[in-house]
UniProtKB/TrEMBL annotation:
Residues 1-25 have a biased composition (Polar residues). Pfam families: DUF3632 (PF12311). Residues 1-33 are annotated as: Disordered. This is Uncharacterized protein.
Length: 279
């Protein structure tokens, strides 16, 4: 990204639409790649020379991302097209950057489109816990169907840790400002008691389904002696429960009025305990 440290000037360069298009495309690719590597200082530098930041009191050591016209669409496309082929460390770094950005509340929640896609893949599609002991290295031939829960749970955990409160708020308000291809639920969710009540976007029902699936993954990981996955699922559950408790979230009211079929689900009993403790 050294070319970004030298702003281009001069009438002959500015008058060339071909060069402008090439430079913009290259700048965008640099931003995407820096995000995937978790190189936030390099990413800030790219954004400065692309005029995609302004100074402010919040985020990234006093820097507030404000005008990123390509960010949501570009980052969503980058995740869809590259999350399967990334190494595990790249997937986590990229998820961490996106979740931290989402936690600021900028872009009106639209960066959380990527969380919907990730959570659908991780929790709503009936994946095996783990099918291989091979390291999660970069693999340009791997597709999304080749990912197990073990590949996706660490990235989902990062979203819950860094932006779980925001995801809860979007779920409370049944936020669905996204294309149907992004907001649609996976088959496990759609066929569930919770999914039959609301299928698209963020909803209290979908948030509860993710919590339920984390409990199921926790149990499966414990039985398989997958300590890291067990620990990730356990901590994710704890964070989600702490968030709804702190906010006294409307998700609890939705659960309370959800009826016997939902109340009998042992994986959601933790919500019942919260409701009773506040009675």
């Amino acid at each position: 990204m050294q070319h970004l440290s030298q702003p281009v000037s001069g009438p002959s360069l500015q008058s060339s639409p071909e060069l402008t298009s090439y430079s913009t495309s290259r700048d965008q690719e640099d931003v995407r790649e820096a995000a995937a590597r978790g190189e936030l200082k390099e990413l800030r530098g790219a954004a400065f020379f692309n005029r995609t930041w302004v100074f402010g009191p919040r985020h990234l050591e006093g820097t507030l991302w404000n005008d990123l016209p390509f960010l949501v669409t570009d980052m969503t496309d980058f995740w869809i097209n590259n999350c399967a082929t990334m190494a595990g460390s790249q997937r986590i770094n990229f998820a961490s950057f996106l979740a931290k950005l989402a936690s600021t509340g900028i872009l009106k929640g639209r960066i959380c489109h990527i969380a919907l896609i990730l959570f659908r893949n991780a929790f709503e599609e009936g994946r095996d816990l783990r099918t291989t002991e091979d390291p999660d290295n970069e693999d340009p031939t791997r597709s999304i169907k080749g990912l197990d829960v073990a590949h996706l749970l660490p990235a989902a955990f990062v979203w819950i840790k860094e932006a779980g409160y925001n995801l809860m708020q979007l779920s409370e308000s049944s936020w669905n400002d996204c294309p149907s291809s992004v907001g649609q639920g996976g088959q496990l969710y759609l066929q569930s008691e919770l999914g039959r009540r609301s299928a698209m976007g963020f909803t209290p029902w979908r948030w509860m389904f993710w919590l339920k699936r984390l409990h199921e993954i926790q149990e499966e990981a414990k039985d398989a002696k997958e300590k890291r996955l067990d620990d990730l699922a356990t901590e994710a559950i704890d964070i989600m429960i702490a968030n709804v408790k702190e906010r006294n979230s409307d998700i609890l009211r939705t659960y309370q009025s959800s009826g016997e079929a939902v109340h009998q689900d042992k994986h959601l009993r933790c919500l019942q305990n919260l409701v009773e403790s506040k009675a």
